Amino acid sequence: MQVLKKIFPVLINRYFLAAVGFVVWMLFFDQRDYFQQRERAGELSKVEAAKKYYNDEIDHTRKQLNNLQNNPAAIEKYARERYLLKREGEEVYLFQDTSTTPVTSADKK
To answer: Which of 44, 101, 104, 106 is 20 to 30 A from 85 (CA-CA)?
Structure first.
């Protein structure tokens, strides 16, 4: 009972009520509420990660392009790997990786 008499005047204080109302408004009802800010922060981190990935890919592609423009051996290697080109009188054998088998509906049962 003594504790209630000490707390009650603080709870009905107009400044305390205004502060509580402000906090509640900012957490739940404001246009930029707390939960929306957390969601946007998560989206921002995903976008920054994607930006870093694409910048790394751009740098890698620029290095490949520079190498292809300045190195004839790199052009030949690229053509052989990507387009399966071969020299005259040369035979090319393609091997298929059979170590991984696709999962069929019969395997799932």
So the answer is: 101
Q: Flag whether 2 is in a domain.
A: yes
Q: Are residues 47 and 78 in the same domain?
A: yes
Task: State how far the alpha carbon of 43 is from the alpha carbons of 37, 48, 49, 62, in Å.
Answer: 10, 9, 10, 28
**The two structure tokens encoding residue 11:** 């709870």
Counting every residue written for the chain, the total comes to: 109
pLDDT digits (tens, 9 = 90+) for 78-96: 888 888 778 788 887 778 8
Render 45-57 in DSSP notation, one character per residue. Answer: HHHHHHHHHHHHH
Can you give the residue range of the structural domain that contains 49?
42-83
